[in-house]
Design brief:
The complex is a heterodimer of chains A (275) and B (409). Chain A has 275 residues and is mainly α. Chain A contains 12 helices and 1 strand, in the order E-H-H-H-H-H-H-H-H-H-H-H-H. In chain A, helix 10 crosses helix 11. The chains are: A mainly alpha (275), B alpha/beta (409).
Chain lengths: 275, 409
């Protein structure tokens, strides 16, 4: 009668417990269902549905273009400014949306956390992946604009998945970090929008990184958005890639990921008791 | 085969300002002294028990006894502070029905989502989908968003998914307490089916009758500790006796006699067919109430016993009208009277007994102890009591087996 020999051991939490990837893998279907739910609800609840996902980057880009084409003329090499800005805005909006959504994932799913078991990491991860749906829509607009401006696709486009993975990794790590902190500290709700705003201004979204002097180039790349944007633009528009910048940002992302997972793992066992 | 073993499981909570809620408090906390032990609450303390394959275990206890914490720890929602538990087999945990239901999604979508949250595989949900829909009786509204459902429909859908969870070990909190009566019955019998198919069930409920009916064994938790562990009827009876402070044996306080100059009650107890004290009664067996009392011998003394059910309704009053001492004063001395109530008479649940002695012409009550005794009636599901094979809620103050005459015209 007992077909499975699945054994569950319940023990007190141990600091620095090994990271149970197997458990996450066993729950992969739940992760897909949660992503599917988040995407579905995201577009169902809003009257304009997916229109928002398109409107937001487009309007932001138009404003940037209007302001910066008259006030300050940035040197964006051969890339038309609207295209340059939109490519930055779309990546930024993905990172921004997924971190914001992920940071609320436990607070808005209290009943899930207190009534069922599942690897807690699923919730912030689902929020991050759900935000990808917006990114896909933005990519469509970028492609249309590339046709309009006559920007040709180069073989460098094959590098795009690498930078997409870096962006997802960054968004997922920080989303995870803030989701855990948000359970414990209500300050996160107030601090996060501010932090994100500062981060946006500090990232080369509507201005080129060449605005900074050469000697600060690698220091600037500690901001992981610098490397990601550099890579995304290079793979889309075929411009030269500064691998040193990408490398520094890559290391920065790895460090952020390790810290985030560490914080998350040390806090997750208490979620059900304090959320 | 052992499917669950719990060893010295403990869970500590901090009361009041349990955990710092903001960054500032945390930083401040580093510099202040550690929290005092006064704020500690052991929701569970050294709880140990084992459960075998196919057993149905009920967990009872008053509010705050640690029942929910135990279920949460065993469901892996929260970690124990110390101790350990081992479970072999697939665990299905139902601390709430409809967990993760979303109002914007349709019934169909919610079945998939909720199934996945409860731990079902996609393929499994697909296979059982029609069964779930059938059980829930909401087929027509399958593609309607949940927000347009009535609360009854919502509960039915939620329970239907849960009922098809099909785990080897099922952990259930008091989820049956909701929903309409008809559907509750359906759920209870579904749970019994699960139990009978050899799966192990851990069940927490405040409804002692449901626990007695479903579970063969009961663990009684009190302030986080195991107070009793054994056959369900005896543990439930013990638990209820403590809850109400009424036991199945009553003894007079010698310094403060109960009664007047004409008659005094010495003791009273609930006895079974073998004349031994009992706390719980199989509905099919007869039960006796024995009272021992002293009379002075100057009046006609009529002993009488009153039975009450849980709601306080008086089920019946019985007088010793027709005995040897009918209409005449008995000689001074100590007497023992027993009234026998036949089996298949009381309904299931707790019965409270009042013991009294009176003289009727003129009316004079010599003693009456209202909440003197209590015992617990359990209705088995063996099929030979008045409930037959029916397992749901069974109304009625008494539960006799009556003769039916059926002819065809």
């Amino acid at each position: 009668m007992m077909s499975s020999t699945e054994t569950t051991t319940i023990e007190p939490k141990r600091f620095l417990r090994s990271f149970d990837l197997g458990d996450l893998w066993r729950h992969r279907e739940l992760l897909f269902f949660m992503i599917w739910r988040d995407v579905k609800i995201r577009y169902k609840q809003a009257a304009f549905g997916i229109a928002w996902a398109i409107l937001q980057p487009v309007v932001t880009t138009i404003i940037f273009t209007l302001i910066f084409s008259s006030l300050a003329r940035f040197d964006t090499a051969d890339v038309p400014y609207p295209l340059f800005a939109l490519s930055g805005v779309m990546v930024w909006l993905f990172v921004h949306t997924s971190i914001t959504m992920a940071s609320n994932s436990f607070v808005t799913n209290t009943n899930l956390v207190t009534k069922v078991y599942f690897p807690r990491l699923i919730l912030p991860l689902a929020a991050t992946f759900a935000a990808l749906s917006d990114l896909i829509l933005s990519v469509v607009i970028v492609v249309l604009m590339m046709f309009y401006f006559g920007v040709a696709v180069t073989p460098q486009l094959l590098l795009a998945p690498l930078f997409l993975i870096l962006a997802i990794g960054l968004a997922a790590s920080l989303g995870t970090l803030f989701s855990a902190l948000n359970v414990r500290f209500r300050d996160v709700k107030f601090a996060l929008p501010f932090v994100l705003q500062v981060w946006m201004i500090a990232s080369p979204i509507f201005y080129p990184p060449s605005l900074l002097s050469e000697k600060w180039r690698l220091v600037y790349a500690i901001n992981p958005m610098v490397g990601i944007l550099e890579g995304v633009r290079a793979s889309l528009f075929g411009t030269a890639i500064d691998w040193q910048v990408v490398g520094v940002s890559g290391i920065s992302i790895v460090v952020i990921t390790v810290i985030s997972l560490f914080v998350f793992k040390s806090m997750e066992d208490d979620f059900a008791d304090i959320v | 085969m052992k499917v669950l073993s719990v060893k010295d499981l403990s869970k500590l909570y901090y009361l009041g300002e349990r955990l710092p809620n903001s960054l500032r408090d945390t930083i401040a906390g580093v510099f202040s002294s550690r929290r005092s032990t006064k704020d500690e609450l052991w929701a569970l303390k050294d709880v140990s028990f084992e459960l075998s394959d196919g057993e149905t275990l009920g967990i009872v206890g008053s509010n705050g006894a640690g029942k929910s914490t135990l279920l949460k720890v065993l469901s892996r929602i929260t970690k124990p502070t110390s101790g350990r538990a081992e479970i072999s087999g697939r665990v299905g945990s139902l601390l709430e029905v409809g967990t993760g239901f979303h109002n914007e999604l349709s019934g169909r979508e919610n079945i998939y989502l909720n199934g996945a949250i409860l731990g079902m595989k996609r393929a499994e949900i697909q296979k059982k989908f029609d069964e779930i829909v059938d059980f829930s009786e909401i087929e027509r509204f399958l593609d309607t968003p949940l927000k347009h459902y009535s609360s009854g429909m919502y509960m039915r859908l939620a329970f239907s998914v849960a009922a098809h969870l099909d785990p080897e070990i099922l952990i259930v909190d008091e989820v049956l307490a909701v929903g309409d009566v008809g559907f509750q019955k359906k759920c209870l019998s579904k749970m019994r089916d699960i139990g009978e198919s050899g799966r192990t069930i851990l069940f927490v409920s405040h409804d002692m009758r449901a626990v007695a009916r479903l579970c063969s064994r009961v663990v009684w938790l009190d302030k986080g500790k195991v107070r009793g562990d054994g056959q369900s009827d005896s543990v439930i009876a013990e638990y209820l006796h403590e809850q109400t402070n009424i036991s199945s044996v009553w003894k007079a306080d010698e310094s403060n006699p109960t009664g007047n100059d004409h008659a005094k009650l010495i003791s009273a107890r609930v006895i079974g067919e073998d004349r031994q004290s009992i706390q719980s009664l199989d509905i099919r067996k007869s039960v006796g109430i024995e009272m021992t009392y002293e009379v002075r011998g100057d009046k006609v003394i009529t002993p009488n016993i009153h039975f009450f059910d849980e709601s306080g309704t008086c089920i019946l009053v019985s007088h010793d009208w027709y005995g040897v001492w009918k209409d005449k004063a008995r000689p001074a001395g100590t007497y023992r009277s027993i009234v026998w109530v036949p089996g298949n008479f009381f309904s299931e649940g707790r019965i409270t007994v009042a013991v009294a002695a009176s003289t009727y012409e003129p009316m004079e009550v010599h003693f009456v102890v209202w909440d003197a005794l209590s015992f617990y009636v359990t209705d088995s599901i063996d099929g030979d009591s008045a409930r037959g094979d029916y397992t749901g809620q069974f109304p009625g103050v008494v539960r006799p087996i009556l003769d039916w005459e059926t002819t065809s015209d």
